[in-house]
Amino acid sequence: MKRLKLIISSVLVAVLMATAFTGCGGSSDEKKTSNDSYTIKIAHSMAPEHSYNAAAQKFKEIIEEETDGRITVEVYANGQLGAERETIEAVQAGTLEMVVTGTSAMSGFVPEWQVFDMAYLFKDYDEFWTVMKSDIGEKYCHEYAEEKGFRGLGIGCMGTRNVHSVTNPVYDMEDIEGMKVRVMESNVHIKSFKAMGAAPVTMAFSELFTALEQGTVDAEEAVPSAAYTSKTYEICKYYSLTQHFWLPTCMFISEKFFQTLSPEDQALIEEAGDQAMEYQWEYHKQADEESLEIMKEAGTQVNEVKDKTPFVKAAHSVYEDILEDVPHGKETMEEMERMLGRDMYEV
């Protein structure tokens, strides 16, 4: 019976994906006017309570209100249209209009984004937003993304990731030694965790809960709101504030689809995307605070890492190696050094 349910579930997902993607690209080469009615589909991989969904719903609200329903927006949460990579591929191909995702996931398609995946890149939120709201952020959202078939509509933030463990808290480097930590399929993440002494394991987010239950991995790395909405806090009882990865997030539209729109609709969509991602960040900050309190009440042990210097040194030790494979990476590091007035390789 369990196997039958799994088969039926898989078939339903496949049908939903096929239905949703059908028609998205069918008229993708036809130029629309500012009077045309059409539907924009936005997908993401997170739960309905997540800030990705909040951003998508805000975009929907703005677009439908500003156009009096001429443009309708459909939001597909929780991987309804497939895994994160599948939806990004669909946007690139023009068979899905939009996706909300992190730049870590996007770096598999726009490799320039990998520079922002490096651990302990920024010292605080002031540095993070100074860079993201500058010409650097603009270049990454537009020039580099558009070359690969995407257009960034706005930059948000998912805060910083922390180690969320089943086995033990992390206070220092010794505590993470040999720990099997689930990471995304990113060479930057893998190299960073290996440098810090952990044993990174790549797997899809959809497989994580079971992997933690079965002991396939010892820990995940997540922001509080993601740990809460995914329910991994029910298994992982130690949340250590390592704050290792900064998490830019973006709302992307298919460049192929975008070029079919009237100039008026293009301007409206870009403005709505920017507003939606500003809302995402405000929503996320509150969600993280509330999630951490709920996790504490449920018995999660939360601890500070008082001296992050050894972690920072380890992470920075692989910067040069990582940047060898990142297009424009060294150039961007130099730009950030001039902008922030410091050595980006220093501890």
Cα separation of the termini: 56 Å
Low-confidence stretches: 1-18, 22-27
User: What portion of residues belong to β-strands?
Assistant: 15-25%
What number of domains? Answer: 2
State the CATH class of the largest domain: Alpha Beta
Q: According to CATH, what is the topology of the largest domain?
A: D-Maltodextrin-Binding Protein, domain 2
Organism: Candidatus Allocopromorpha excrementigallinarum
Family: Belongs to the bacterial solute-binding protein 7 family.
GO biological process, one term: transmembrane transport
Protein name: TRAP transporter substrate-binding protein
Outline:
The protein is α/β, with parallel strands linked by helices and 347 residues long. Helix content is 46%, strand content 18%.
List keywords for this structure.
DctP_fam; TRAP_DctP; 5-stranded mixed beta sheet; 15 helices; D-Maltodextrin-Binding Protein, domain 2; 4-stranded mixed beta sheet; disordered N terminus; 2 domains; TRAP_DctP_sf; single chain; globular; about 350 residues; alpha/beta
Task: Give a description of the structure.
Belongs to the bacterial solute-binding protein 7 family. InterPro entries: DctP_fam (IPR018389), TRAP_DctP (IPR004682), TRAP_DctP_sf (IPR038404). The protein is α/β, with parallel strands linked by helices and 347 residues long. It folds into two domains: 15-103 and 124-157 and 249-290, Bacterial extracellular solute-binding protein, family 7 (D-Maltodextrin-Binding Protein, domain 2, 3-Layer(aba) Sandwich), CATH 3.40.190.170; 162-245 and 298-339, 3-Layer(aba) Sandwich (D-Maltodextrin-Binding Protein, domain 2), CATH 3.40.190. The chain is built from 15 helices and eleven strands. The strands form three sheets. The protein has a five-stranded mixed beta sheet with strand order 2-1-3-10-4, sandwiched between helices. Strand 1, helix 2 (51-66) and strand 2 (71-76) form a beta-alpha-beta unit. Helix 2 runs antiparallel to helix 12 (263-297). The radius of gyration is 20 Å and the shape is globular. The chain starts with a helix and ends in a 7-residue tail after the last helix. The model is unreliable at 1-18 and 22-27 (pLDDT under 50).
